[in-house]
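User: I'm putting together notes for a lab meeting next week and I want to include a structural view of one of the chains we've been expressing. I don't have a solved structure, so I'd like a prediction I can at least talk through. The sequence is below, exactly as it appears in our construct file.
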Amino acid sequence: RGLATQVARKTPVAGRHANLFVRIHEALSVPAEMVDAGTDLNAALVAKYSFNLTINALGMIENLPLADWSSHDRQGRVAAVAREAIAIATALLGSPSDANAAIEVVRAGMQGLPDMKARGRTAPARLTRALEIATKEGLAVPALRVIADEAQQP
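Assistant: Thanks for the context. Below is the predicted structure for the 154-residue chain, given as structure tokens.
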């Protein structure tokens, strides 16, 4: 909404209409790439969910630019939150994922968007949904729960 498009990596697209979506992205000057509809797409979905949840959750603590979070990883929170986000995304997807590869995507995304603030407008709702999913799936997400508790304190 009135903000410039920021791109940290190519948008992965797959499926029957992938060529069309790549051309649309190109017309908008947004890089995209075709990926296999199986493992590659699943990995991309896990990485994207993990990136969004990680930066939004961190932004609930302190709305720093991503460069600050990635260069001054406060108490190892980036990795802890990213691993929990990956666990949630993997549970949603219902298939295993490469957590180390997803963490690298999260870190690369943060480095690729250094001036972007961590907290998006939907951060509180995103964190709430993630905690609900974690509870439903029986996942331990202590870092996310601490963040939710801290965010509720005045």
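A couple of points you could mention at the meeting. The helical segments are 18-27, 39-61, 66-71, 77-93, 99-112, 123-137, 142-152. Strands lie at 11-13, 32-34.

User: Perfect, that's what I needed.
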